[in-house]
Amino acid sequence: MKYFSTRGGLSELTFEQTVLAGLAPDGGLYIPASIPQLPANWQNDWANKSFPELSIEILSLFISADEISQTDLADLVHATYNHSAWRHPDITPLQPLTPNKYILELFHGPTYAFKDVALQLLGNLFSYFLQRRNKAKSPGEERETLTVVGATSGDTGSAAIYGLRGKPDVSIFILHPKGRVSPVQEAQMTTVTDENVHNLAVKGTFDDCQDIVKALFADTAFNARHHLGAVNSINWARILAQTVYYFLSYFAIRRTLPTDAELQFVVPTGNFGDILAGYYAKRMGLPMAKLVIATNANDILTRFWKTGRYEKVDSNSSSAAVGGVVETLSPAMDILVSSNFERLLWYLAFENVQNTNPGGDLREKACQTVKGWMDNVKSIGRIIVPDSVLELARRDFTAERVDDKQIRQTIREYYTSAQSYTADPHTAVGLHVAGVLSPPSNTIQIILSTAHPAKFSEAVTSALDGIPGFDFDAVLPEAFKTLLTMEHRVIEVERPDVELVKGVVERFAVV
Q: Which of 2, 93, 332, 347 can pair with 154 through a Cys bridge, CB separation 3.0 to 4.6 Å?
């Protein structure tokens, strides 16, 4: 299996090269040269497999045994998903709310967020590739190192840090928007004091942080000197790792419910990585209804599915305040531009070219279309796709928006229900959207729960204020109770300036 950039070029990379590169030099994102189909008897052969066993099966479809042997892949997976690092034996368990509605809990890893699923594996992949490369070097030859840089709206940072802390030959620099992540999220990052871990609090937004990371990757000389690696969901390995829990939940439902039940995944969505993993699972052959995109007030994706306009500023709004990122109760989704959406745009462009302009190099035509679209997003802040492209997008997805008032109401509704459930504000976005849909009676809704409620104490306590019997201490894990009093280490960056961040990397990176 080879990988190429969504924005073109003839070069194809191996899986190893793709993982270590992260972002393509032309600014595009790497995607597989083809999407593999599932084996003929997968529904029976995989039906009773555990999360690690399913991971091995699915990852091996995208990773050549010439790159990572089956034995090594199994070792990597079992080192990642084991009972010492995860608090539930199923890794990502399903919790029933009603006969037709389930929560897929993705927060049982080290940092209590869904991003652990991918970033624990990515950290081990980085180490595996570096160790193999350095082992092959001659005595005295310079060791290869990796400088990992990433931007976080809250959970990516801590999950990446926990996945890479203390690993040899790796330095990690995580940028977060100062004051725009929850206190627990910030503490999870800044209390890790391993020498290879560096937290940067940037006075700006998540999009500012993400733009800086992209600029660093685009700087050829800087990238070459520091061997940059990506942990954001621009890194293909993260998307691949996340496809597994779609399969796991499918088999869990099949074991208990009628075979005619149709699954509908409802995904709280910001940067489009989590739901994109579901799209790849669907394209591989996993049966499901349309994927449901659930956004907060930062609704660029919902607006796209309603209008075909992908634009930073809502051109249909008369509000003078429109523009920029809106601070909400679900901060991990406070994103202006969804990076992973570019991967879906490539598939839409490719299929549209197949239908409307067949002949020639269809892949390159799709790449040039995507490049033009992304250039427009950068230069004028918007694109308007043809109706034929929008119809293709609507075939596999639908989207809805949720505001803060609805988030609070939903947290309260599910806590006070007969099957009481304490949802974090991002999960509440998904729960609310699931509630406004009207699927057929044989539909089973699975709402992806992306974080433990204790990570967002202010949102949860404000929603449940005055509820008899509610005690936030009962929700709070022991691991969180000492976080805010521990030693913190953070570097403040006074403005979103790529040169200032370069200076920090130059000072602390292992080279």
A: 332
Nearest-angstrom CA–CA distance, 147 and 217: 11
306 Cβ partners below 8 Å, 6+ apart? 399
Judge whether 355 and 288 are in contact, CB under 8 Å: no
Report which residue type is found at 471: D
Locate 261 and state its tokens.
């039940």
Q: What angle do CA 52, 57, 59 make, to 5 degrees?
A: 90
Q: What distance lies between CA 203 and its chain's CA centroid? A: 23
- 364 Cβ contact partners less than 8 Å away, ≥ 6 residues apart: 8
Catalytic residue numbers read: 115
CA–centroid distance for 83 within its chain: 23
How do residues 132-182 score in pLDDT, each as one tens digit?
999 999 998 999 999 999 999 878 899 999 999 999 999 999 999 999 988
SS3 content of the chain, % helix, strand, coil (to 5): 45, 15, 40
Residue 314 and residue 287 in contact, taking contact as beta carbons nearer than 8 Å: no
Mean of per-residue pLDDT scores for the chain: 94
In this structure, the dihedral spanned by the alpha carbons of residues 343, 349, 354 and 355, taken in order and rounded to 10 degrees, is: 130
Q: What are phi and psi of 31, to 5 degrees?
A: -135, 155
pTM equals 0.94
Tokens of 123: 């950290």
Nearest to 31 by CA among 54, 10, 5, 53: 5
Residue type for position 339:
S
Joined tokens for residue 491: 């570097």
Quickly tell me which residue has 């910001």 as its tokens.
Answer: 270
Report how far residue 509's alpha carbon sits from residue 506's, in angstroms, rounded to the nearest whole number: 6
CA distance linking residue 479 with residue 475, whole number of Å = 12
pLDDT interval class at 360 (50, 70, 90): confident
DSSP 8-state symbol, 139? T
pLDDT tens-place string over residues 244-253: 999 999 999 9
What distance in Å separates the CA atoms of residue 407 and residue 463, rounded to the nearest whole number?
8
**Beta-bridge partner residues of 259:** none
Tokens of 213: 């990371």
Amino acid at position 357, single letter: N
